[in-house]
Amino acid sequence: VYNPIGSLYLEDLEEDYTLILIHSIFAILLGLQTILFMVSKKMLTPLMDVERHFKRMEGGDYSEVAMTSQYKEINQITHSYNKAIRHISYLLETREMFNKIFMHEMKTPLAKGMFYLKNEPSLKTHEQIHTVFEAINTQLNTFKTLEELIGKNETILPHPHTLNSLLEEV
C-alpha cells in the first residue's frame, strides 16, 4: 500500500481455492460440451446423408435414398425425397417420350410438304402445301399445350363448346 509517508507491503496468507474451483467447473463444462457435440453429430448423421444426396441430385444423380432411422422426422424426409426423385424421373421420361413423339409427328407433314414441292407447281400443290403448313402449326400449338401441362406450368382452362364445334374438331 502506498501512502505519502512510506510504503507498506502486506502479504495474504489465506490460500485461494476459488481458482481451482472455477477451473474444475470449466473443465467439467468443456467435457459436457464435447459429449453433447458428439451425440448431436451422431444424431444428425442421417440428415447429413440426405444433404449429400441433395448435392448429388444437383449434379444429375437421381438415385433414391435407402436409409432408415429411429427418428420419424428423418424417415419422413427420406420418404419425401424418394417421392420427389420418382416424380422427377417420371417427368424426365415423359419429356423424352414427348420429344420423340413430337419429332415423329413433325417429320410426317414436312415429308408430305417436301413431296408436294418436288411436283410441278400448280394451284392444287400450293393449296396442299398450305394445308400441310396449317397442320404443322396446329400440331405445334397442341404440342405446346401438352408440354406445358406435362411441366405443370399451365392449367387447363375450360372453354364452353357446342356439340357442333366438338364434332368439327373431332
Short description:
With 170 residues, the chain is mostly helical. The chain has five helices and no strands. The mean pLDDT is 80.
Summarize the biggest pleated sheet: none
Q: Using only CA atoms, what is the Rg? A: 38 Å
> What's the pLDDT, averaged over the residues?
80
The gross shape turns out to be rod-shaped
Ends distance? 110 Å
- The number of distinct β-strands equals 0
In N-to-C order, the SSE pattern is: HHHHH
Keywords:
72% helix, 5 helices, 170 residues, mainly alpha
Topology:
Blueprint: H1 18-43, H2 45-58, H3 72-118, H4 123-150, H5 163-169
Helix pairs in contact: 3-4
Description:
With 170 residues, the protein is mostly helical. It is rod-shaped. The chain contains 5 helices and no strands.
